[in-house]
Amino acid sequence: MTRPDTFNSPDIETTSSLRQIGALETDTLTQFQTIRDLAGSADAAFTFGTRASRPASGAQGDRFFATDRNWLYYWSGTQWAIVAGLWFTTDATRAAVTPDTTDNGAAVYTTDTNKLWRVSGGAWVDGFVSIDVTTSYEVGGVKVIGARGAAVADVASADATDLPTVITLANETKAQLNLLLARVRAATGHGLIS
Fold first, then answer.
1. Each residue's pLDDT tens digit, 65-124
2. Engineering a disulfide at 89: which of 4, 46, 93, 162 sits with its beta carbon 3.0 to 4.6 angstroms away?
3. What is d(CA 143, CA 194) in angstroms, rounded to the nearest whole number?
4. End-to-end CA distance of the chain
5. Beta partners for 66?
6. String of b and e for 73-82 (b: at least 16 CB within 10 Å)?
7. Tens digits of per-residue pLDDT, 10-37?
8. Distance of alpha carbon 125 from its chain centroid, rounded?
9. Cβ 176 vs Cβ 152: under 8 Å
């Protein structure tokens, strides 16, 4: 996987993300504590195989690592439950997989679409629906997206037989196009082009 261009955006609103990370850390800690309690015996098994080859059941505390998805499960006493794992694959491969509730909490990063997916309620959920940025995005220290600027007025249609109106509208069109280009270039605007 290639590393995307870096960006600096110190003004991203992080409260919601931090709350989600905190919940994830709490869930993961609870799962690890449960595994520690259940797997305290040397008799607990740790097996490997594809997700499809996972046993139908296990002894309490058994662990299973799905080698085709990099997902780690443990037997809770009633079902397999995921502990952790991040699978890197294409979106088509991800979409062809039908998860179930024992996969809840698993994550997949699709390398062709650069999206993070997770399993919730036995179904795929887009992990990144939106990002709230309060000021701008920067790539290599250069602002490329910023706050929305004021509207640029539409050009009125002209009667082709009215030459003075056509000339006036041509000049207005040129002025509006230049204004639009200036806003797209401006570091205080979007900075999308040089």
1. 999 888 888 888 888 888 888 889 999 999 999 999 989 888 899 888 888 898 999 999
2. 93
3. 11
4. 29
5. 49, 71
6. bbbbeeebbb
7. 555 555 555 555 555 555 555 555 555 5
8. 10
9. yes
Tokens of 165: 């109106």
Element (H, E) at 95: helix 91-96
Helix (H) or strand (E) holding 167, with range, is: helix 163-185
- Report residue 93 as tokens: 């491969």
Tell me the pTM. Answer: 0.47
82 against 132, higher pLDDT: 82
Residue with tokens 């000339």: 167
Comparing CA positions, the residue from 19, 45, 30 lying closest to residue 105 is 30
Residues in the chain, total: 194
